[in-house]
């Protein structure tokens, strides 16, 4: 290339968007996506993941190939789907939700980048956030200390709040940390915290019947896949009993919770792309610390508040990232 042509190339390249420029130097990577959930439930989060890839210069269909596997709410399918992905020739797997614990039990020959609502240390595939084990690392959305903050939000919404039920899956890794934080906060605020373990639909129905027989003034949900899948039953019950609910994920506010406060989930999915990029380019998963949430959001459901005859404090409304009316 002569000097004039070279200068013209440099000038034209400088006018390109940064993500297009980045694509010039990116080799094609082939990865797998693995989840026990349904595709429709994860659509906005997959969009955030693709946005993260785009910021790094990867475009699906060009220099990024993603093999998708959805378990359609059948956790037992995860090992079979993982084997399919390995056989297809992916160079790493991005695992989501409950599927993470399942793939951790296997000795897969490819690295795993995960996004997980539980505590990786309690789950047994990390010796601490700075020390992931083996060929797995990623993002945890657990921030146990936020459960206490949610109880404080409830106290500000519900006059003379004294009795709160916690609906939680006892099989969710890290649930003991969340329970301890809630009980400590409850004691400090003068609340009775009633822990209702719900590992199955039958146990959930039993817990709701117990709350109906011995009423509480509010419910706090510990966010995980089981709660997501059964949220309709929980919110139908809460509406019938005229009881406000708080939780950690915005999905619950859109389903009827009076308020949610927790990780900005789209941001967590976007951040996964950087770890995929680094591992695809030679970094070992064990060298990448497990990431915790760095951005949080508050969503207030004014429609639910009006239905329950409750007022949302002006300070909470002013700080809310989203208000559902």
Number of distinct beta strands = 12
Architecture per CATH nomenclature, i.e. the level-2 architecture of the largest domain:
3-Layer(aba) Sandwich
Number of domains: 2
Largest sheet: 7 strands, mixed
What top-tier CATH class of the largest domain fits best? Answer: Alpha Beta
Instruction: Tell me the fraction of residues in β-strands, as a range.
Output: 15-25%
Low-pLDDT windows of residues:
5-10
Counting DSSP H or I runs of 4 or more residues, the number of helices is 15
Trace the largest sheet across and list its strands.
7-6-8-9-10-11-12
Average of per-residue pLDDT values = 91
Features:
single chain; 325 residues; alpha/beta; Rossmann fold; 2 domains; 7-stranded mixed beta sheet; 5-stranded parallel beta sheet; 15 helices; 46% helix; 19% strand; elongated
List the topology elements:
Blueprint: H1 3-14, H2 18-24, E1 29-35, H3 39-55, E2 64-70, H4 78-88, E3 92-96, H5 99-104, E4 112-116, H6 120-123, E5 136-140, H7 146-157, E6 163-168, H8 175-189, E7 192-197, H9 201-213, E8 218-221, H10 225-229, H11 231-241, E9 245-247, H12 250-255, E10 259-263, H13 265-280, E11 296-301, H14 302-308, H15 314-319, E12 322-324
Helix pairs in contact: 3-13, 7-8
Walk me through the structure:
With about 325 residues, the protein is an alpha/beta fold. The protein folds into 2 domains: about 5-140 and about 265-295, 3-Layer(aba) Sandwich (Rossmann fold); about 145-265 and about 295-325, Rossmann fold (3-Layer(aba) Sandwich). It has helices at about 5-15, 20-25, 40-55, 80-90, 100-105, 120-125, 145-155, 175-190, 200-215, 225-230, 230-240, 250-255, 265-280, 300-310, 315-320, and strands at about 30-35, 65-70, 90-95, 110-115, 135-140, 165-170, 190-195, 220, 245, 260-265, 295-300, 320-325. A 7-stranded mixed sheet has the order 7-6-8-9-10-11-12, with helices on both faces. It has a 5-stranded parallel sheet with strand order 2-1-3-4-5, with helices on both faces. Strand 9 (about 245), helix 12 and strand 10 (about 260-265) form a beta-alpha-beta unit. The protein is elongated and about 60 Å long. The N and C termini lie far apart (about 60 Å). Residues about 5-10 have low confidence and may be disordered.
């Amino acid at each position: 290339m002569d000097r004039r042509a070279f200068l013209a190339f440099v000038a034209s390249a400088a006018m390109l968007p940064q993500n297009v420029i980045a694509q010039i130097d990116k080799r094609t990577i082939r990865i797998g996506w693995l989840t026990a959930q349904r595709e429709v439930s994860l659509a906005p989060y997959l969009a955030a993941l693709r946005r993260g890839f785009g910021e790094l210069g990867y475009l699906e269909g060009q220099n990024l190939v993603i093999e998708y596997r959805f378990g359609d709410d059948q956790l037992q399918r995860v090992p079979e789907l993982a084997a399919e992905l390995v056989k297809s020739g992916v160079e790493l797997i991005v695992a989501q939700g409950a599927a993470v614990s399942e793939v951790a039990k296997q000795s897969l020959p490819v690295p795993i980048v995960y996004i997980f609502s539980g505590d990786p240390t309690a789950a047994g595939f990390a010796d601490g956030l700075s020390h992931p084990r083996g060929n797995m690392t990623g993002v945890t959305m657990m921030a146990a200390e936020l459960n206490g903050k949610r109880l404080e939000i409830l106290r500000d919404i519900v006059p003379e709040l004294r009795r709160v039920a916690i609906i939680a899956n006892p099989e969710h890794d890290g649930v003991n940390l969340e329970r301890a934080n809630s009980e400590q906060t409850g004691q400090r605020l003068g609340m009775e915290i009633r822990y209702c373990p719900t590992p199955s639909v039958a146990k959930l129905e039993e817990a709701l019947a117990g709350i109906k027989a011995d009423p509480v003034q509010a419910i706090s949900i510990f966010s995980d896949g089981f709660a997501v899948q059964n949220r309709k039953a929980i919110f139908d019950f809460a509406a019938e009993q005229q009881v406000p609910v708080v939780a950690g994920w915005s999905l619950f506010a859109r389903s009827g919770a009076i308020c949610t406060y927790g990780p900005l989930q789209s941001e967590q999915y976007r951040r996964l792309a950087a770890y995929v990029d680094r591992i695809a380019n030679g970094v070992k998963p064990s060298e990448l610390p497990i990431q915790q949430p760095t951005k949080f959001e508050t969503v207030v459901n004014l429609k639910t508040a009006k239905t329950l005859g409750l007022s949302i404090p002006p300070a909470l409304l002013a700080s809310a990232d989203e208000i559902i009316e």
